[in-house]
């Protein structure tokens, strides 16, 4: 009992350390973008569990040619399948989200070792 509590504490300490280290290289604008991204975009653009599918495409600095201007317009207006965020976030916040996306290396949202089975139904189909 005591031992398992200790293990949990060690794991928690490790997890906290990792997330702090990941945030360290982000400037204030990118950190704001990261918070808003996790709040509003992650539900469709990240893989919440190892075996679940993603509704939207993986996002990284490669999307829309990595052009912040295009990212901001896309995020503001959305598409038929993605809501626009111009009434949710002000231009500074949208710029922060675009700046954060530009820090993401390809492959971070989609976990290649845990692909969903090809025949499993996904919300995108
Ligand atoms: C309801 C699900 C959903 C949410 C929430 C969502 N998206 Fe999307 N997003 C999509 C889908 C689906 C696409 C693919 C385009 C399409 O099919 O219309 C997309 C496409 C994109 C693209 C273009 C990718 C490309 O290269 O074509 C960007 C950039 C993007 N989303 C950013 C965001 C950001 C930033 C947020 C949060 C502020 C967000 N999305 C929230 C579903 C979503």
Characterise this structure.
The protein has 125 residues and is mostly helical. The protein has a domain at 26-112: Orthogonal Bundle (Cytochrome Bc1 Complex, Chain D, domain 2). It contains five helices and no strands. The protein has helices at 2-24, 28-40, 42-45, 68-77, 91-101. Helix 2 crosses helix 5 and helix 4 (68-77) packs across helix 5 (91-101). It is globular, with a radius of gyration of 17 Å. The model has no long low-confidence stretch (mean pLDDT 81). It binds heme C. Heme C binds at residues 40-41, 43-45, 55-57, 59, 63-64, 71, 74-75, 79-83, 85, 97.
Terminal-residue CA separation:
46 Å
- Count of β-strands: 0
Determine the CATH superfamily of the domain at 26-112.
Cytochrome c-like domain
Assembly state (oligomeric): single chain
Let me know the average pLDDT.
81
Sheet-strand content, in percent, reads under 5%
* CATH first level of the domain at 26-112: Mainly Alpha
List keywords for this structure.
globular, Cytochrome Bc1 Complex, Chain D, domain 2, 5 helices
Which helices and strands appear, and what pairs or packs with what?
Layout: H1 2-24, H2 28-40, H3 42-45, H4 68-77, H5 91-101
Helix pairs in contact: 2-5, 4-5
Summarize the structure.
The protein is built from 5 helices and no strands. With 125 residues, it is mostly helical.
